[in-house]
Design goal:
The complex is a heterodimer of chains A (about 170) and B (about 140). With about 170 residues, chain A is an alpha/beta fold. Chain A is built from five helices and nine strands, in the order αββββαβαββαββα. Chain A has a domain at about 60-170. Chain A has helices at about 15-30, 80-90, 110-120, 135-145, 165-170; strands at about 40-45, 60-65, 70, 75, 95-100, 120-125, 130-135, 155, 155-160. The chains are: A alpha/beta (about 170), B alpha/beta (about 140).
Chain lengths: ~170, ~140
């Protein structure tokens, strides 16, 4: 009696290997949560810094009410009006401090929004001529592409005192 | 004249290298991935300006119900009470001098909590903090 023999293939079947690998890629891509890696930087006073002596009347005071409304120097203002209000003051005195004083009940997001507006205001000073202007994201990106040489101007002197500091220094 | 019969073209797509390519991609993704030390989900505030946060940074997350989690960037974040943030920050400054602290706080947190956190960081002499934010588009801010 003759037995039938099937010829054995001497190749390793690798055709499904790619499918498995791509499945793994898709799995990792789906499970990866993108981390938010950008934000506003905010320098705290250094150890050796002497606390700047600021007259309360000299500074621009931006208060944030519990509902999130803004009160700039005792006047209710919109977020978009801050630049126009500050421009003449900063042109006269580029070092004019701006104080953000959020109410303890005010939402954190509103404080960040005000800080964002203030950080977008840049001051360029050449001799006695002072230029105050607002920048946007595109200007920042352009400056990043051109390298560190490009000068956007100086920041506004913003301070966000904490409740403890307000209690111990202001009253 | 009789032409030689053309050699039959194989109807097989060579897929042997496909797996190599795919595994290379996997390796690439595995190498470039940075693991988040803090996985708290918060609704971040939106800002127009955003600067890149350094990779080596400590994180403090504050959720809208006031829960705080901290990590110095070396281990996964752990929950701490508000009053212990100052001791966390003091340890951080001693262990990793100059390391920035990233504040990942929810949009709607009452400012009281943030105030306390920033005050703790100031007391511990942290030099730089980052307020983590999402991108606000230019159009949205005008509307």
């Amino acid at each position: 009696m003759k037995l039938k023999t099937t010829p054995l293939s001497d190749e390793i079947p690798t055709s499904s290997m790619a499918d498995i690998a791509f499945l793994l890629i898709v799995y990792f891509m789906v499970t990866t949560t993108f981390a938010a890696t950008r934000g506003l930087d905010f320098s705290l006073p250094k150890d050796d810094d002497t606390p700047p002596i600021v007259e309360k009347e000299e500074a621009v005071l931006i208060e944030i009410r519990p509902a999130g409304d803004l009160v700039v120097d005792q006047e209710v203002k919109q977020l978009g009006d801050i630049f126009d209000y500050l421009k003449p003051k900063l042109e006269r005195n580029p070092k004019k401090p701006v104080i953000i004083k959020p109410d303890p009940e005010a939402p954190y997001g509103q404080m960040v929004a005000v800080f964002d507006v203030l950080r977008r205001i840049k001051i360029k000073q050449e001799g006695t001529a002072v230029q105050v202007y607002e920048i946007d994201l595109r200007a920042i990106q352009k400056a990043e592409e051109e390298g560190e040489e490009s000068d956007l101007g100086k920041d506004v002197n913003v301070s966000i005192p904490t409740q403890r500091e307000i209690e111990s220094f202001w009253f | 004249m009789r032409l030689k019969r053309r050699h039959e073209a194989g109807a097989v797509i060579p897929t042997a290298s496909m797996a190599d390519i795919a595994f290379l991609l996997i390796v690439f993704f595995m190498v470039t991935i940075t693991f988040e030390k803090d996985k708290t989900q918060v609704a971040l505030p939106k800002t127009e300006l955003r600067f890149e946060v350094p990779k080596e940074a400590a994180y403090i997350s504050v959720t809208d119900n006031g829960q705080i989690r901290v990590t110095n960037g070396e281990y996964m974040s752990t929950p701490v009470p508000l009053d212990d943030v100052v001791s966390f920050a003091a340890n951080l400054v001693v262990e990793f001098p100059g390391r920035p602290v990233v504040l990942k706080a929810d949009n709607n947190v009452p400012y009281r909590n943030i105030d306390k956190v920033i005050d703790s960081l100031k007391q511990a002499k942290v030099e730089k903090i980052f307020l983590l934010s999402e991108q606000r588009t230019v159009d949205a801010s005008e509307g």
